[in-house]
UniProtKB/TrEMBL annotation:
It comes from Trichonephila clavipes (Golden silk orbweaver). GO terms for molecular function: RNA-directed DNA polymerase activity. Keywords: Nucleotidyltransferase, RNA-directed DNA polymerase, Transferase. Residues 154-275 form the Reverse transcriptase domain. This is Probable RNA-directed DNA polymerase from transposon X-element. The gene is X-element ORF2. Pfam families: RVT_1.
């Protein structure tokens, strides 16, 4: 086989380079509370501070009685269900299907393993991953190590790159286990008709185009019947980052999600940590 090798064939070199290379971009001096930040170390810490502040609760006044009611219900539920609850397990076939659909170019996890490397795993490695995830399901637990996000920054197009709010922060976590949980959540929502039909975001086989079509039809019907159509559009800033965790668990209890799934999501949301990475420099947080 070596005698048949073509010394001018660089396909292997291109493959290795495509797997190993890291795309970088220049971040200009960033504007912070104390002025401009120039070094990569200062920049990643500034991004980390900005991200940490976005995770704080909203300052608006709340209904304290309702908050107490929600927190009490969540505490009582978790205390009453402190023992492990049976969960339907996954299979190597399901794990392989999830890995197959992971995008190759996504940032690697904290362990440095890229998605394209996962796709080359032998069957015995897939079996071991399945055993780990099934153990997590049986324990009703989301591993702490998978809750540490290694975050990379991507500039928003057309925005001033001197300000941290004009960057998207992208993390890669325990994506395989997350996708297993997402399938179970979606299945419960669909089977119990929890999500209304006019909700198109984050649902399978729907998109913003479907929502635009629905609104357009509503406007056309109004025009044909000589009635006025009024639209109210609300954009909630930091909706995901500032989500009320106890409120989400409360909703899952109200909508009768399986106990094992509620406990895993509660574990998933607690004690999360992160580091911001830029030019091989990590933030101190």
């Amino acid at each position: 086989m070596l005698s048949e090798a073509n010394p001018d064939d660089d396909s292997l070199y291109k493959l290795v380079k495509s797997v190993s290379k890291n795309k970088t971009f220049h971040i200009p001096p960033l504007v912070g509370p104390m002025g401009l930040h120039y070094s990569p170390e200062d920049k990643v810490d500034l991004f980390a501070d900005s991200l940490e502040s976005s995770f704080q609760e909203n300052p608006e006044p709340y209904d304290d009685d309702f908050i107490d009611h929600v927190e009490d219900k969540v505490d009582r539920f978790l205390h009453r269900n402190s023992r492990r609850h049976t969960a339907p397990l996954t299979s190597p076939q399901e794990i392989m299907e999830i890995i197959l659909h992971l995008p190759n170019q996504k940032a690697p996890r904290k362990d440095g393993i890229k998605n394209i490397a996962l796709k080359a795993l032998p069957l015995n490695a897939i079996t071991n991953i399945t055993k780990i995830i099934n153990s997590c399901l049986q324990l009703n637990y989301f591993p702490q190590e998978w809750k540490h996000a290694l975050i990379t920054v991507i500039p928003k197009p057309g925005k001033d790159k001197r300000f941290t709010e004009n960057y998207r922060l992208i993390s890669s976590l325990g994506k395989i286990f997350e996708k297993i949980l997402l399938k179970k959540i979606n299945s419960h929502c669909e089977e119990n008709h929890i999500i209304p039909d006019f909700q198109h975001g984050f649902r399978q086989q729907t998109s913003t185009q479907h929502q635009l079509l629905r609104v357009t039809n509503h406007i056309i019907n109004g025009y044909n019947s000589k009635t006025i159509t009024v639209g109210l559009f609300l954009d909630v800033k930091k909706a995901f980052d500032r989500m009320w965790h106890d409120g989400l668990i409360y909703k899952m209890i109200i909508f009768n999600f399986p106990t094992y799934l509620i406990k895993i999501i509660h574990s998933y949301l607690n004690n999360r940590t992160f580091n911001v990475k830029y030019n091989n420099v990590h933030s101190s947080q």
